[in-house]
Design a protein that fits this description.
The protein has 327 residues and is α/β, with parallel strands linked by helices. The protein is 37% helix and 25% strand. The two termini are 35 Å apart.
Length: 327
């Protein structure tokens, strides 16, 4: 769907800042892909190149059937952007327009909205949980509500791709979880491809299938979420992982790795007392070294099992828990 090949971008300022330095990456269909890095890593620049908000100096970017985005004419750029929705860090709502008018903005830039457009905008309001807010103004909404309006606006043209640039960085923890779950649900319902830029590993852990780590204009690591969480190689990646309290290498150093099992489980087993049942039935000694359950009820756990590991593995797998050895 998206191919970035040997792309470089330098800002023509006093420092001649190199934002991207010969990077290559592919974004496949059907995934929520996270791009994480500290400020200045180049992550926001990358997605701004994908929707032609900025151009690049060398290399090539292909999005859908459009090749070499630098050479797109005005009409092709307009058609490309119609297929891409943007969710920003700030909601970018116009204060003098109502909620429904803000959602319809991407349409009104090019033509007068039809009754069907208004109906679709109202249906999107329902999907984001703001059915009764159609005629309110941004000043009458909370931060989380304004971001929900921004999400609805990003969907008004029925895009194939959604680009999210730090969409939760201005929100509190509870609202962040709600917005991320909303994006995930909408991506599934509307068959959207999503690229989300963030500096927060908690965001990556909650929503992403695949992850790219950037540093100083370079891609330093890329892979599935499991690859990044449990097989991190680059120092910057390990720093991000420590932010969420998961440092598998440190856990291994602090324990006998031969006694450690890595457990992954989903919503169907979160509410069950699986570990307690296992201890009672197998009569074993065990300890939980690390555990975390995300707001969407996906869980990971590191379990220390000094003996009877095979029995433990069979028991857990019978209860729909994915079990792996940490080494």
């Amino acid at each position: 769907m998206i191919q970035v090949q040997n792309v470089s971008k330098q800002y023509r300022n006093t420092d001649n800042e190199i934002a991207l330095d010969n990077i290559s990456i592919s974004f496949n269909e059907g995934f929520i892909h996270g791009i994480i890095g500290i400020s200045g890593a180049g992550k926001s620049t990358l997605i701004r190149l994908i929707n032609r908000l900025e151009t690049y100096d060398s290399g090539d970017i292909q999005v859908f059937e459009y090749t070499n985005l630098r050479r797109l004419n005005k009409e092709s750029t307009r058609m490309l952007r119609k297929r891409i929705g943007m969710i920003f860090q700030s909601d970018h709502l116009l204060a003098r327009k109502t909620v429904i008018e803000n959602i319809l903005l991407p349409i009104t830039f090019h033509r007068k909205p039809t009754p069907e457009d208004y109906d679709y905008a109202e249906s999107l309001l329902k999907e984001v949980g703001l059915t009764e807010y159609s005629n309110r103004y941004p000043s009458q909404l909370s931060g989380g509500q304004r971001q929900r309006v921004g999400i609805a606006r990003a969907l008004i043209n029925k895009p194939e791709l959604i680009l999210c640039d730090e969409p939760t960085s201005a929100l509190d923890v509870i609202t962040t979880g709600q917005i991320l779950q909303l994006i995930k649900n909408l991506a599934k319902k509307h068959h959207l491809n999503v690229i989300i830029v963030t500096h927060d590993m908690h965001v990556i852990k909650e929503i992403c299938d695949t992850v790219t780590v950037m540093e100083k204009g370079h891609i330093v690591e890329s892979g599935t979420l499991d690859d990044i969480l449990f097989k991190a190689k680059h120092p910057q990646t390990r720093i991000f992982i420590r932010e969420i309290g998961l440092d598998l290498s440190n856990i291994i150093q602090s324990h006998d790795p031969n006694q450690l099992l890595l457990l992954k489980f989903d919503e169907s087993v979160v509410e069950q007392s699986i570990i307690a049942k296992m201890i009672n039935e197998l009569h074993i000694d065990t300890s939980i070294v690390y555990a975390n359950v995300t707001p969407n009820k996906k869980g990971i756990m590191v379990l220390q099992v000094p003996s009877q590991q095979e029995s433990v593995i069979h028991f857990l797998r019978d209860h729909k828990v994915v079990v792996e050895h940490v080494i």
